[in-house]
Design goal:
globular, four-stranded antiparallel β-sheet, Jelly Rolls, alpha+beta, DNA-binding transcription factor activity (chains A, B), 11 helices, HTH crp-type domain-containing protein (chains A, B), HTH_CRP (chains A, B), transcription regulation (chains A, B), RmlC-like_jellyroll (chains A, B), homodimer, DNA-binding
DNA sequence: CGCCCACTTGAGCTCTCTCAACGCCTGTGG
DNA sequence: CCACAGGCGTTGAGAGAGCTCAAGTGGGCG
């Protein structure tokens, strides 16, 4: 972990991890990396200090993973929960042709505990879309956490409802919006979600995804994604460069995409 | 209920309700209408006689609803669970333009208990796509049922996982398949789901949906749905008329759609 | 009998895709 | 230190899937 922060060029994806007052050395315990998860859960159900401390303790399980690392294999039953602390991971499906559909993002603070809670196999793969910080929490430790912290368990359940709603929203997005609208909607959603974990400043956030990733998310070709982004830039709705996204006209963007944040 | 069975022309949607040995008069208690739910749940977790009896008792809450009836309004918190016994209902979203996206079907045996379990408002509308038989089970009665019958509660939880997986599958369907493939995939899924509740015979089942419904499900125009269906007929994969669907070449259809039933 | 709704068919048009090429940046190896 | 390969973003052009508009058919219901 310490080594990660000193990686030659800081991947924008990771920057959220160490945001805020810069820490010379990683300060364990009250580390900001637990922040995303705590902030998110706190939004669903207020946590107390003990809950927060328990979440902070999860840092012990955090480790960096390379881009394209498969975190949970399709059709397997994971014996641990996956928690993303920095970077984006995806839930994706693939066709025989190799074509990929990303059905969800796991952004900092998101997690997957399917295997642990239900020991049901997953119908998709979970994969790091970039260099990430991910905690793999063993089943027993995870169940223990839920058992001791009912507020966390409650918040996680509500988070799961939001995830479900997001899946529906994505389906509606791909099903009834044009390419440009889809992109706008996705960018609005990400602003909202990243905002709740403190990774949006001044309508700006890091968008470390590849245009191909976006394409596989929105059901478009990467070429078309490129043009769609240009259209949004031309209309002065966003500015995007070096994986840094600026929402120039939030209201107009939301109206254009018919984005309603209620589902999150 | 009794009156429904004598409705002038029997809607194909309802036929599954009274399928099997025809009953002169509705026989309460061991009525086949509870069958769909019991069969489905039994597939997720084996039920015993008491569980079955409890499900059969739900018949008291069943009532017919007209097509287009809104069962749960968007943004409302339902104080009852919705259980579909016959016919199809949909979860759908609408755009300002009036365009609709169906994000899920509720077929016989399916239910929605979001409001009851979480009192969270729904991000979509639940609506009868045709004349249906639907039970509205009050919160207390529903919670009581779950409390007294842990096997049912377990089965319902697993059913919810399958629902989630289905949403992902639909997203992948719309995101990376052609119109014809999407339709084929949907028809395969429905064969599977209707099969588990005993509504498929000889590769045939009632498909009481409108082409417009199918269009709004698959993210296509109704005109194109029409042509897609013709293509499937031309290729001798299906035959469809009078809302009765025959899968002529199940294996070929599944291969064409790359359908894997695992997620259900 | 007539209306309404679902299905059908045709034609032109648009959005999006595919193929292809090129520039840029980065990491790698000589 | 430089050459090179690979990945990503960008641009152009032609092709194709799917859309919209429009008209017509047919069946069920008032």
């Amino acid at each position: 972990m310490g080594t990660l922060a000193t990686t030659a060029v800081m991947d924008p994806a990771i920057s959220g991890f160490a945001r805020g007052p810069r820490q010379a050395a990683p300060a364990p315990g009250r580390d900001r990396s637990a922040c995303a998860l705590a902030r998110k859960l706190d939004g669903f159900a207020p946590l107390d200090e003990q809950d927060r401390a328990a979440l902070a303790d999860l840092i012990g399980y955090v480790r960096p993973v390379e881009r394209h690392t498969v975190l949970v294999e399709q059709d397997s039953v994971a014996d641990h929960a996956i928690i993303v602390f920095a970077g984006f991971a995806s839930r994706d499906k693939r066709r025989a042709s190799g074509r990929r559909q990303i059905v969800a993002y796991l952004i900092p603070g998101d997690l997957c505990d399917r295997g642990v809670l239900h020991d049901y196999s997953l119908d998709h793969t979970i994969e790091a879309l970039m260099h990430c910080l991910v905690a793999k929490v063993p089943r027993t430790a995870y169940l223990d956490l839920l058992g001791r912290h009912p507020r966390i368990a409650l918040a996680l359940q509500r988070a799961r409802l939001a995830e479900e709603a997001t899946a529906h929203e994505w389906l509606a997005n791909v099903g009834m919006r044009s390419g440009t609208e889809r992109m706008a909607h996705l960018l609005c959603e990400l602003m909202e979600r990243l905002g709740t974990v403190g990774q949006v400043t001044d309508g700006q956030y890091d968008l470390p995804l590849t245009q191909t990733d976006l394409a596989d998310t929105l059901g478009l070709s990467s070429v078309h994604v490129n043009r769609v982004l240009q259209a949004l830039r031309r209309d002065k709705l966003i500015s995007l460069g070096g994986h840094r996204l600026r929402i120039l006209a939030p209201r107009r963007l939301r109206e254009f995409a018919e984005f309603e944040a209620g589902y999150l």
